[in-house]
Fold this protein.
Amino acid sequence: MNNSQDNVLPYEGGVFYFPKALSADYFDKLSRSLDWKAEELIMFGKKIITRRLSAWYSDGGLSYTYAGLRRNGLPFSAELQELKSIAEELAEADFNSVLANYYHDGADGMGWHTDAEKELDPNTPILSMSFGAARRFSFRHKATKERMDLMLESESALLMDAASQRHWQHSLPKALKVKEPRINLTFRQILY
């Protein structure tokens, strides 16, 4: 793992922030080229259609299930393949999939969760990339409820190690003052 950055978390996990690690022109390329879709999820026993758009890409059509939704991977585009190489270099890990999310503005958010679905390799980090509007990203320790906040700027990357998923939840809180869109990519390793 690339430890050239300071750990954002105080204990039980490693989260490393890389500001301005990426090129700004990816936002327009990704917003036009990815197969964005609203998701139909089961949350708290109810079927909802998300305002947030998403897309799932993977090597060999690997599938991923979360919140009651099973996604079959599309082949990586040229832009996603370039970004996957950058993600692997920053994380010093291999990734075979990426979940892309398109947030229209600050009214779109993501509640507290961990990325711990059964298909994910529990020993591989997750590398997140942000393009577009700057947004606050929060961490909450599962046992102590201690909270840490970080502002994710456009063209930044965030590396979350495997231990951080075991001990901390994370969220993208709504921010109604934010009027611009944001694209987030999370590179992952799916078990075959």
Q: What stands out?
A: Residues 15-188 form a domain with the Jelly Rolls fold (CATH 2.60.120.590). The chain has a mean pLDDT of 92. The first strand starts at residue 15 and ends at 18. The helical segments are 26-33, 78-91, 162-167.
